[in-house]
């Protein structure tokens, strides 16, 4: 029996070990650990990679989204539209500002927000739309942008799962007013700890996010806002600079594995994900759907295959959002995804044989 973990850094990190250790030594010898050259260079490199003008490193993906919202002046009494199916960080970033997250259902085929339903959720309190490129596939940004423009709303990308993905040839991070990225280790571009970034071509926003993440300071000991401490440290920036060079190669391999899965999975009880023609997908997560999901999961685990669920409880049914008083059944598509989605192994370093084994096991499940 093969043993295939849900995710593994082994091959990825072995291949770049010397480069990573060299980069670490550069920081170590330089004796400068916060707000130095590595972060500055990474910011330039990542902005250029996304095709945007500015990048501001910060502590994590949640902070990136929160800092953008705060910099846009969103807070108490405001509403921000978020998908009903996403990682809870998307909604928490809104809640931290004092504003209210308003959920909009996704397409079940792509898991991404359905632009046609956004307009119904707009009220006179709505200030922004947070579009999530879930699992690594961009949301339908042109249609979302139309609603944003019609109601004069900020359009923010939650790009935490979509480093390098494109929509009509344009990279995520460059598809709205501003984007938040996460460099959590398991993300397609991951640090060796927490990290995040804001990407935008709005100079004023970039400056404000930088100040807000640095105690509200525009220059040393001069504080213009009641800011946070959320910065990307030199060690993580140095690690990310090495990894950014590999990202396209890693995403390409994820696409090869996804193609094998899509072509090979042939079990009438299992639905594979759909990629829309305008998009390139980076498969942060390969999510299949199955009515008897929990049985399939147990079967695969018994066959040595690691799995995960993204996400087992929708946000409106989490204790954290009990205050919103949203009953079960209010977001049936999000609930259906929570009940049926199963994430199967997807990582750089997975061999064709391993992908083949996952396919065979899914196909042999009765
Ligand atoms: C990971 C993630 C975040 C949060 O990033 P952290 O770095 O863990 O704070 C936000 N949104 C989505 C969709 C994510 O997957």
List keywords for this structure.
alpha/beta, three-stranded antiparallel β-sheet, 13 helices, 15 strands, binds pyridoxal-5'-phosphate, single chain, 366 residues
Tell me what the structure shows.
It is a single chain. The protein is built from 13 helices and 15 strands. By secondary structure, the protein is α/β, with parallel strands linked by helices. The strands form four sheets. The protein has a seven-stranded mixed β-sheet with strand order 1-9-8-5-4-2-3, with helices on both faces. The protein has a three-stranded antiparallel β-sheet with strand order 7-6-13, with no helix packed on it. A three-stranded antiparallel β-sheet has the order 12-14-15. Helix 7 (141-150) links the parallel strand 4 (126-132) and strand 5. Helix 3 packs parallel to helix 9 (234-244) and helix 10 runs parallel beside helix 13 (352-364). It starts with 9 loop residues before the first helix and ends with a helix. It binds pyridoxal-5'-phosphate (PLP). Residues 60-62, 86-87, 89-90, 132, 158, 160-161, 182, 184, 194, 196 line the site of pyridoxal-5'-phosphate.
Write the layout of secondary structure elements.
Elements: H1 10-15, H2 17-30, H3 37-50, E1 54-58, H4 61-71, E2 79-83, H5 89-97, E3 100-104, H6 118-121, E4 126-132, H7 141-150, E5 154-158, E6 166-167, E7 170-171, E8 178-182, E9 196-200, H8 203-212, E10 217-219, E11 222-223, H9 234-244, H10 247-264, E12 270-271, E13 279-280, E14 286-290, H11 293-302, H12 332-340, E15 341-344, H13 352-364
Parallel strand pairs: 2-3, 2-4, 4-5, 5-8
Antiparallel strand pairs: 1-9, 6-7, 6-13, 8-9, 10-11, 12-14, 14-15
Helix pairs in contact: 2-9, 3-9, 4-5, 4-8, 10-13
This protein binds pyridoxal-5'-phosphate (PLP).
């Amino acid at each position: 029996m093969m043993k295939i973990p849900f995710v593994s850094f082994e091959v990825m990190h072995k291949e770049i070990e010397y480069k990573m250790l060299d980069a670490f030594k550069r920081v170590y010898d330089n004796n400068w650990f916060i707000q130095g050259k590595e972060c500055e260079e990474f910011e330039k490199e990542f902005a250029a990679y996304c095709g945007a003008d500015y990048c501001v490193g910060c502590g994590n993906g949640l902070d990136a989204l929160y800092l953008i919202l705060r910099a846009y002046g969103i807070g108490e009494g405001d509403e921000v539209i978020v998908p009903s199916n996403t990682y809870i960080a998307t909604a928490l970033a809104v809640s931290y500002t004092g504003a209210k997250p308003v959920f909009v259902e996704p397409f079940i085929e792509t898991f991404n927000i359905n632009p046609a339903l956004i307009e119904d959720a707009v009220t006179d309190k709505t200030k922004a739309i947070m579009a999530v490129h879930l699992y690594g596939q961009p949301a339908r940004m042109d249609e979302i942008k139309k609603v944003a423009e019609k109601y004069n709303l900020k359009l923010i990308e939650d790009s935490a799962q979509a480093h390098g993905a494109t929509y009509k040839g344009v990279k995520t991070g460059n598809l709205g007013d501003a984007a938040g990225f996460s460099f959590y280790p398991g993300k397609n571009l991951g640090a060796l700890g927490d990290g995040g970034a804001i990407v935008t071509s709005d100079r004023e926003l970039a400056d404000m996010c930088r100040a807000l993440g640095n105690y509200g300071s525009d220059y040393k000991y001069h504080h213009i806002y009641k800011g946070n401490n959320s910065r990307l440290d030199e060690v993580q920036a140095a690690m990310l600079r090495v990894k950014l060079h590999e990202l396209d190669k890693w995403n390409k391999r994820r696409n090869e594995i996804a193609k094998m899965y899509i072509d090979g999975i042939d079990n009438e009880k299992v639905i594979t994900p759909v990629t829309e023609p305008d998009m390139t997908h980076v498969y942060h997560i390969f999510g299949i759907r199955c009515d008897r999901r929990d049985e399939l999961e147990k079967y695969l685990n018994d066959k040595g295959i690691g799995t995960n669920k993204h996400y087992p409880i929708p946000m409106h049914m989490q204790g954290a959002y009990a205050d919103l008083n949203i009953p079960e059944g209010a977001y049936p598509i999000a609930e259906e995804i929570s009940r049926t989605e199963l994430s199967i192994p997807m990582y750089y370093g997975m061999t064709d044989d391993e992908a083949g084994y996952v396919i065979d096991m899914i196909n042999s499940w009765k």
